[in-house]
């Protein structure tokens, strides 16, 4: 769980509507970041599949050998010589998209950090650590909890569902680079 206190520079207490807007804004930023990370992981799995298929096809000396490439759920017959350049091109495109998603994820992380600092948002673990050490770093407990705990962000259940979604996506079968080589040619 996370706690949220009043906005910096704003002496007056926030209304419930303002608090809810801040919380929903923070949650949407975190959700966007999670989606970027999830997409990046999916693409990295596709990249590994492309690498595996490419390494296998590069060992084949006969470039006229038949192979079958799955495109959109349909197997299409090609030769190894035709498939190799297309797969290498796809691999490079996937790599570029992964780099773009990683950059966007880093930008989103900075945006979240700025948002946290702007509205003085702390997770419960951060708040507990701060209370144990005190603002000056000593081991006294902070007693200003009425001001610092105006609202709580419920993210335990969302973290659990995000973890489950991530696990489900990792198990997902990718068909984008599926290539079968015909042994009979």
TrEMBL record:
Pfam families xrefs: Prefoldin_2
InterPro entries: PFD2 (IPR027235), PFD_beta-like (IPR002777), Prefoldin (IPR009053)
Coiled coil: 84-118
Gene Ontology annotations for the cellular component aspect, listed alphabetically: prefoldin complex
Annotated stretches, region: Disordered: 125-185
Keywords (A to Z) from UniProt: Chaperone, Coiled coil
CDD domains: Prefoldin_2
SUPFAM superfamilies in alphabetical order: Prefoldin (SSF46579)
UniProt record similarity statement: Belongs to the prefoldin subunit beta family.
The protein's name in its UniProt record: Prefoldin subunit 2
UniProt source species: Didymodactylos carnosus
